Structure formats: C-alpha cells, structure tokens
C-alpha cells in the first residue's frame, strides 16, 4: 500500500461510544472493550488486518477480517480513510450484524494523489496495467475483462487477498511449469524412481510387503 501510511503502523487510536471503547491499530487489528462492571463484559477482536478496499483504482479503506466468531461467521470491520487535521478515530457503527464500519481521519490522505494505487506498484505490474489500458482503448477487451486484469494486478501486489481457488490454481500452475521441457521431466522421473527404490528397501527392512501397480 501507500508507503507514507506505514508511519501509522505500531500506533493505536481509540474512540469511546456509550459503554464501548473501540481501538484501531492500523495494519494490525480493531478491538472492542465494554467498559462496565458486569462480570461478563465483552472484550474482543473485531477484525485483523487483511486487505485494502480499492475503488476507482484508489485506496479507500482497510478491511480487518477474521475477528472473534459471531454466530456462524467472524466479525469484520471496514475502516474508511478520510482527510482530517489530525490522526483520529472519528466514528464507529455496525451497519449489519457483526460487520462494523469505522471512519479514520488523517492528514496523510489529504493530498489528491495520496491514495492512488498505480504509484505503489512495481514496474512490472505498472506495465501489466498499462497494457490492459491499451487493450481496453483498442477495444480488444471488455470493461469486465479490464477489471479482471486489474484485480489480478492488485492480488499480485498483495493489496487484495486472492481467493482460495486462485491460490490452488497458482500452485497447480507452479507444478505444471516444472515440466516445461523433456529434460526436466526426465530428471524428475529419475529422482522419483530413485526415491521409490529407497522406499522399497525401507519397507523390506521393516517386513512390509510392497505391492507394485501399473502406475509404478
């Protein structure tokens, strides 16, 4: 994300509303503490730093997810970033059950370019974005296709978390790339054959029968 916001890391900002104290620690977590003398006063985590909220290619907020469990799901919080004279937690609400909304004001986001995503990317990812822009301009991809490429760029940059299916896909791609050439495949085959021989010996030493199959 934007490097100038990292100076907020390691700091915490609180906001008190009626009997609750909310604490937001950027790039860390959001907590809630019930300030009462009840024996079972609630104190817990409303979310842990997870990913950015990106809208119109601009960082607009932070998602804190995987907080304490709440019925069938985990508590989560979206922190909106707004320009303000000082760093402060200005407002807290719960728009839907166990999903919280925090407004954080800071002078660090007052500059019109302070939350642009593009400058935070590596050259390679900026190039990928530029190419997508050109493809869209040449009408070689649809608006939906363009958004899909941008989402991939943001995921590669670590700004958004890839879905589990994406991770599995990434892993299988890695595996398939290992066998790009016949030499690589043969080398891998030799190593596996050697490994099988050693395992057969080990099994024999322990008196375990080895049943060969057609896929040996």
Automatic annotation (TrEMBL):
<dbReference type="Pfam" id="PF07915">
    <property type="entry name" value="PRKCSH"/>
</dbReference>
<dbReference type="InterPro" id="IPR009011">
    <property type="entry name" value="Man6P_isomerase_rcpt-bd_dom_sf"/>
</dbReference>
<dbReference type="InterPro" id="IPR044865">
    <property type="entry name" value="MRH_dom"/>
</dbReference>
<dbReference type="GO" id="GO:0016740">
    <property type="term" value="F:transferase activity"/>
</dbReference>
<dbReference type="InterPro" id="IPR010506">
    <property type="entry name" value="DMAP1-bd"/>
</dbReference>
<keyword id="KW-0964">Secreted</keyword>
<dbReference type="GO" id="GO:0005794">
    <property type="term" value="C:Golgi apparatus"/>
</dbReference>
<keyword id="KW-0325">Glycoprotein</keyword>
<keyword id="KW-1015">Disulfide bond</keyword>
<comment type="function">
    <text>Non-catalytic subunit of the N-acetylglucosamine-1-phosphotransferase complex, an enzyme that catalyzes the formation of mannose 6-phosphate (M6P) markers on high mannose type oligosaccharides in the Golgi apparatus. Binds and presents the high mannose glycans of the acceptor to the catalytic alpha and beta subunits (GNPTAB). Enhances the rate of N-acetylglucosamine-1-phosphate transfer to the oligosaccharides of acid hydrolase acceptors.</text>
</comment>
<dbReference type="GO" id="GO:0005576">
    <property type="term" value="C:extracellular region"/>
</dbReference>
<comment type="subunit">
    <text>Homodimer; disulfide-linked. Hexamer of two alpha (GNPTAB), two beta (GNPTAB) and two gamma (GNPTG) subunits; disulfide-linked. The alpha and/or the beta subunits of the enzyme constitute the catalytic subunits.</text>
</comment>
<dbReference type="InterPro" id="IPR012913">
    <property type="entry name" value="OS9-like_dom"/>
</dbReference>
<keyword id="KW-0732">Signal</keyword>
<keyword id="KW-0333">Golgi apparatus</keyword>
<keyword id="KW-0808">Transferase</keyword>
<dbReference type="InterPro" id="IPR039794">
    <property type="entry name" value="Gtb1-like"/>
</dbReference>
<protein>
    <recommendedName>
        <fullName>N-acetylglucosamine-1-phosphotransferase subunit gamma</fullName>
    </recommendedName>
</protein>
<feature type="domain" description="DMAP1-binding">
    <location>
        <begin position="117"/>
        <end position="216"/>
    </location>
</feature>
<feature type="domain" description="MRH">
    <location>
        <begin position="10"/>
        <end position="112"/>
    </location>
</feature>
């Amino acid at each position: 994300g934007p490097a100038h916001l990292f100076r907020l890391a390691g700091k915490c900002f609180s906001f008190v509303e009626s009997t609750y104290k909310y604490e937001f620690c950027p790039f860390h977590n959001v907590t809630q503490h019930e300030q009462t003398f009840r024996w079972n006063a609630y104190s817990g985590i409303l979310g842990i730093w997870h990913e950015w909220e990106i809208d119109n290619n601009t960082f607009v907020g932070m998602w804190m997810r995987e907080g304490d469990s709440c019925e069938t799901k985990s508590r989560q919080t979206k922190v909106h970033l707004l320009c303000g004279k000082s760093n402060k937690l200005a407002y807290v609400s719960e728009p839907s059950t166990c999903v919280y909304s925090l407004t954080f004001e800071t002078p660090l986001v007052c500059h019109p370019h302070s939350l642009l995503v593009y400058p935070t990317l590596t050259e390679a990812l900026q190039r990928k974005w530029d190419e997508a822009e050109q493809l869209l301009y040449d009408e070689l991809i649809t608006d939906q296709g363009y958004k899909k490429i941008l989402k991939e760029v943001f995921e590669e940059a670590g700004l958004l978390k890839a879905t589990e299916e994406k991770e599995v896909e990434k892993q299988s791609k890695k595996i398939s790339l290992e066998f790009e050439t016949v030499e690589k495949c043969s080398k891998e085959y030799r190593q596996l054959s050697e490994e099988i021989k050693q395992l057969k010996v080990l099994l024999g030493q322990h008196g375990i029968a080895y049943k060969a199959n057609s896929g040996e």
